[in-house]
Design brief:
Largest sheet: 8 strands, mixed
Structural class: alpha/beta
CATH superfamily: P-loop containing nucleotide triphosphate hydrolases
Shape: globular
Distance between the termini: 57 Å
CATH class: Alpha Beta
CATH topology: Rossmann fold
Number of strands: 12
Mean pLDDT: 90
Strand order of the largest sheet: 6-7-8-3-9-10-12-11
Number of helices: 12
Bound molecules: adenosine-5'-diphosphate, magnesium ion
Helix content: 25-40%
Oligomer: single chain
Amino acid sequence: MTAELTSLILEAADVTVRFRASGRGRATLALDGVGITVERGRTTGLVGESGAGKSTLGRVVLGLVPIASGSVRIGGADISKLTAARRRELRAHLQAVYQDPLSSLNPSYSVFWSLAEPLRARQVGNRSEIAARVASTLEAVGMEPEAAHRRPAALSGGQLQRICVARAIITLPELVILDEAVSALDLSVQAQILNLLRDLQDERNLSYLFISHDMAVVRHFCHDVTVLYRGQIMESGPTGEVTDAPAHPYTRALMQASPVADPVAQRRRRLAAVAESAQSPTTASDGCIYAPRCPFTAPECHQRRPELREIAPGRFVACDRYPEWTDARTRATIETN
Ligand SMILES: Nc1ncnc2c1ncn2[C@@H]1O[C@H](COP(=O)(O)OP(=O)(O)O)[C@@H](O)[C@H]1O
Ligand SMILES: [Mg+2]
């Protein structure tokens, strides 16, 4: 790729995506002015509840969803300005791993064919070169060579996800979109796959966009994080800083929604989340989009959309009540009521 000078493999800015509803309903504003960056060799987390627009952003990066406005740069190149041939070339540097490995793999293909297919599609190597690459990639993801002859039905969930990771890295991509890639796995298997992904990142200088609803996993795995709520960015920055001291009330709520000790509080939050998701799709509103759910609102929160502002180097928040709401006394008064 050209523009190797930039340290950013992905730079999306001000991306807006609308989905036209069938019939006469209003269009869904799935992404509303969203920006995100991924540095080479690093992991950016994209976190938020179901329906926030995370997968849509992943699909935008893969070139599968058209944007209404904004820009997406991969390795410095604006993908909307490329010729079809250059875009295809660029596409080879991008891969994705999804939540459900069974639906990502052809059930009638052996593992060998699932891994060979992306190479054949790109006309990479002759038969023996392909076989060698499949073998070395299987080894890289911790699978035995014999696995090449198996079909998906004969493999466990963790093994299947290793195969999906193998298929994603076999074309030597630079950026891999991991869309809830470990969300369906048992905790111990989840940890194994995350370790594998991290080792592969170190060995191959891979960059990851790690999409997840689980703040605990993001905290453990990502260098940087962007918090998305109903198509808008609430907060972003280095993961340690964001999780240790959330600057947005929504980030704090997400942290509390990861496994907590108080089952009653958790149940109440789940119910609130359900009520929320039943609301109509996101549309542009005057105030802060999170205000209806926020315990720390002031009247102006309902009138003006907060700008995403930089509160420390590389640290951004879209909350006009920051830092007041983080003050312990403010919180104590509000939360005991
Ligand atoms: N192809 C589509 N057509 C219409 N609406 C869509 C489509 N894909 C996603 N949406 C809507 O866009 C919003 C964001 O969805 P999505 O990106 O899948 O969220 P997430 O991955 O965070 O759960 C949701 O309201 C969803 O219903
Ligand atoms: Mg999704």
